[in-house]
Structures are given as structure tokens and as C-alpha cells.
Hints:
- The protein is built from 3 helices and 16 strands.
- Helix content is about 15%, strand content about 50%.
- The chain has helices at about 1-20, 90-100, 115-125, and strands spanning about 25-30, 30-35, 45-50, 55-60, 65-70, 75-80, 85-90, 140-145, 150-160, 165-175, 180-195, 200, 205-220, 230-250, 255-265, 275-285.
- Strand 2 and strand 3 (about 45-50) form a beta hairpin.
Amino acid sequence: MIRHTSVVAIVLCLAPSWASAQSSEFTVNVQSAAVRKAPSTGSPVVGQAPRGAILDVTRDIGAWVKVAWPEAPEGVGYVHQSMGKLSQRATREERLATAFASLPPPEPVAVPEPAAAASLDASASTRTIYVPPPTHVVGLGGQMSGATPGFGFTSRIWSRKRIGVQLDLSRSTLSSATSPERVRSTQFAPSVVYALTDYVTDNVWLRPYVGGGGALTRSKFSTGTPEVSPSASESSFGWRTFGGAEVTIPSVPRFAVSADVGYQWSQQPFAGFELGGLGFSISGHWYVK
């Protein structure tokens, strides 16, 4: 009976430390995993974790995990998820259940039920719940361009290798300052984007990127006096390149705002109306995955 009581006491003494631990852990399954100062392959290495090492995870940021690393200047480091396996750490209740299940049945002991219920309620109220932020893979949203005023639909798909695909469908209108003539254009622009080194803190996630692709435009010219001169339509194709950054904040982890500047080389189907040139745009993406 004394031996059983000692084991139970040890388990209960260790329970607070289990409750304060993070609920996720990262197990290294390569020969040696580099622990870096920031979530980037270009960031300095602050240590090496050997095969089989179990690291406490404080945050999951997609391709990287933020782990406790006392040797680092700030006490934390970043390990790429390809170096091991991310798993959920057993909760306090699960560890207690395992410990009690391994004990032989003890002699009956009278325990007041209200006290036991109060203990369980207290443990449930102090348990830490860890919810990892969603990764940004597939985003849908809207776009507004500034140089050639227009609005449209935009989508963005990212891969774990920092390469993505962007599809933009927009409509804009150009008017003449000296006549009622105007040109309405509908443009479909598929592009390939590449994400540079991320800047990640507890308050913001900044993802800079560069990209380029084609632009297929269908333009309709209107004179403003259809009874005198009919309208005309033309199709044109051009190329564009751009660069910008995508910003996400913790309070809305699935929504990202992007701003970019670019240049488009495009044909001029109607004299006096320039469809290409330097431009900028602002877009918002809601990441469904």
C-alpha cells in the first residue's frame, strides 16, 4: 500500500510541469537537424539537434516550427519540418491515466467526492490549449489596381518550395481627357511567383515575393457617339513582371493583404490609350487551405 501511494504522489507532483508544457513536440528523424535563428535556410545556425531528439514546439508556422533552444540568444530556434515529425504531446489527463493504469488495484480508500470533482475542475481550467495557425496554400480574393483604375478577382496557390501560381482576372476603363472616347478592357493574367525569405514574429508574418507572366487583354473602344462611329474590339497579348509583399496578422490568420509594383509590356490596340507601363495594385486573399 505504501509503495502504491508513493507512486501516485510522484505522478501528482510531476503533473503541474506536464500541464505547463506545450502540447506539441517535434522529433528529429535525420542524422542532424540544423536549428536556425530565423525560419529561413539563409539564417545563421545556432545549434544542431541529433537524431531522436524531442524538441518542445512553441509555434507551427507552416514549413518551419519554432522550438525551445536555450543555447540561442533569445532562447528559441527554428527547424524545418522536413527534418522530423510534428506530433501532439499527451495531455496531463492522458499521462495520469497511463500512470494509474500501470498500477495494480490499490486497497479501497475513502475519498470525498466533492474534493475529487474540484481537483478535476481545477486541472481542466489550467490546461493549455494549443491551436496552430493555418498554413497559406490556396487563397481567393479581390484586387484593385492604381495606375489603370480597375477591379477584379485574384487567386494564389503556394507550394512548400516557395513557388506559387497567381491568376488575376480584372476589368478597367480608360477615358480620354479631350473627348467622350473610352476603352474598356478585360484582362486575364496568369503568373508564376516566388516567395523570398519570410519575416515572422509573434505579431506579423511578412512574405515578400517576385513574379512574372503573361497578360491576355480584350479591349473595346467606344467613341461615345455610336450613331456616328461604331465601336471596335481588339485582343492583345503582353508580358508583365512585379514584386511585392504579403502581410498576415495573428488576429486574422487566414487573411492576407498584398501590395506590389510592376511593369507590363503590352500592345497599344487603340491610339491614345496606353494599356501597359508601370503600375501598382493592392489585393486581399482569404486562404481556404
